Amino acid sequence: xxxxxxxTLTTDFHARVVACGEQPPAAVHGTAAAEGDxxxxxxxxxxxxxxxxRFFRPGSVAVIGASDAExxxxxxxxxxxxxxxxxxxxxxxxxxxxxxxxFGVPCSPTVxxxxxxxxxxxxxxxxxxxxxxxxADAKVKFAVAFASGFAETGEQGADAQxxxxxxxERSGLRMLGPNTNLNAFEKFRDDLEGPAVALxxxxxxxxxxxxxxxxxxxxxxxxxxxxxxxxxxxSDFISYFAERPEVGAIACYVxxxxxxxxxxxxxxxxxxxxxxxxAVKVGRTETGARSAxxxxxKLTGADRVVDAAMRQYGxxxxxxxxxxxxxxxxxxxxxxxxxxxxxxxSISGGTGAxxxxxxxxxxxxxxxxxxxxxxxLHTWIPEYLNVANPVDNGGHPVGDxxxxxxxxxxxxxxxxxxxxxxxxxxxxxMSDKLAQDLVDAAETTxxxxxxxxxxxxGTEEAYRTTLLGSSRVATFRTFGNxxxxxxxxxxxxRFTNGYRSPFDEAPRTPSPSFxxxxxxxxxxxxxxxxxxxxxxxxxxxxxxxxxxxxSAAAAVRAAGQVGYPVVMKASGAQLGHKTELGLVKVGLTxxxxxxxxxxxxxxxxxxxxxxxxxxxxxxxxxxxVEMVVGVxxxxxxxxxxxxxxxxxxxELLADTAVRVPPxxxxxxxxxxxELRGHALLEGGVRGAPPADVDALVEVVLRIQRMALELGxxxxxxxxxxxxxxxxxxxxxxxxALAVCR
Length: 741
Hints:
50% of the residues are buried. The chain is of the alpha/beta class. The chain is built from 25 helices and 27 strands. The longest helix has 18 residues. α23 crosses α25.
């Protein structure tokens, strides 16, 4: 099995590929769908999202371990839960074996004695495990376990969490935690309007800055502190929030993932709904990954795979909590862009140039304004100032009627979708009027207006009242955060505009190649190069003409049939790096050279105690771009596909891109575009012709098919080098290594 049992994708072909339009129809805890769980069009059927309405707004709440004794931790928690229950209109029932009432509310001695069915049970006990069967008998829908001492503490705690998870799965209820907190029961401001940010954190303290955005006028709708995720996990809340009409963006602080595939399914659901997901994901470094694992007891995953998977499904990854705040707030509130063009408008040429540098470096397009538009701007701006973009007004026009005219003229340009005005510091009264003009203009347009208020003080009237008082202006405190958020805003809408789910492009049934390939697999063994190439051939991937021989005479005959010059290589089931052992001979042009090479290769093999199944006599392929394409298994996401520059420098250059299957041709081409050495494929380097990129893309997609169909049988595949020939000539796998499970 891959990952958890909630929404798990089993390793058979159907559940790994066919059931990936979303999590397959599930029993109580989302076990994998059986063969044939498709709708009438052959598409995978979506499973239902947990009805978390009854979690966030229950009709009744039981607090088990409730207390009103002063000085006890449970007393403060009970008091907060009483206040929260009143706010959401829930009836609260304290449960305690020795108390008749808590804070004047009648108390039940046990769960079985509750006076009515309960939607949510809050467990203020050190060990929640014994309570789970009691909650199940009482038909409780949700539980929250605050207790710590589980997977975050090591092996013994992980065993305890495994037992807790199993009990919850048997019970039919859903549980948040353990190792969680009261964040879900915070008091949210109800006087703020507009689309809201929904917050998910695995560390409650890390969500505090986002929660505090309410004081800046940003609406928050929910906070899900998932803790160790023994049951309910980040992906459950993403799926739920993506379908809530009030949610404009989802902000996540993620330390580790319980099940990478479930996360992608949830991200896919959000992308289909057009709801942006912004995430801080810990684990970019070994130290961060180790610390995160010790905090929640979950796998952080190989960071380059996590990063690629998030991009693949449109999850916007940011580095800091400040970026998480600003980016999620902008994406929640801003309307869809009407154009991709961004204009930087400032009262200082230096400010504009500085911001333009940062924006351009981030990949934000700053189009040169038309001559007509520049001429219009020069109506109010002195001729000697540059208004091509960035637009420098020189300062004085801001102080009078011209300031608003300039802003309106920029926003009226059909090629402009975003106006950014960096104000590095307060300079009243001009900065006050500039802020007011920007706010007033934003109210009259659907285009995005951003302001960077650079003052470190932040108490200025123009900032606190004018800018923060506007729901139409996105206000930032730093250039960097503004650039990050605007880039994410434009990228998100490009991504979701006509979004095609990778799962919609996934194959529905095993291919004929799959059946051929199964016959070649050898459990727990590394295949010989000859067998690995047969595996590739089964999937329609071109390999050189070659023959496997066991005598010098047969080698000579094979060379004549293959055609000189030839390459000769030792072939054996456990033989990895042949070149280092001297077990490869290239450029052989005669029968005598072939005979000598055969003897030398077999002598070396005997000396090195290498078991051979023969010697390969191969067609020699020259003049192409050497690439590597491979399959590995990630602990979180399962099979992954990698492509990069190959040959003997693959480990030195480490120029590779990775994706998680399934993916389509667009993602395969995007992988190539990410490579630093992509120019080698385009041609022109030292007079080389353009490479057959179409053939390379086709190989990547066929390797992906292998990963999907053989994922539980194929531990590793390494095609290196894959020689990509000139345009229209194809690609040839010159060597291959395959390891079976």
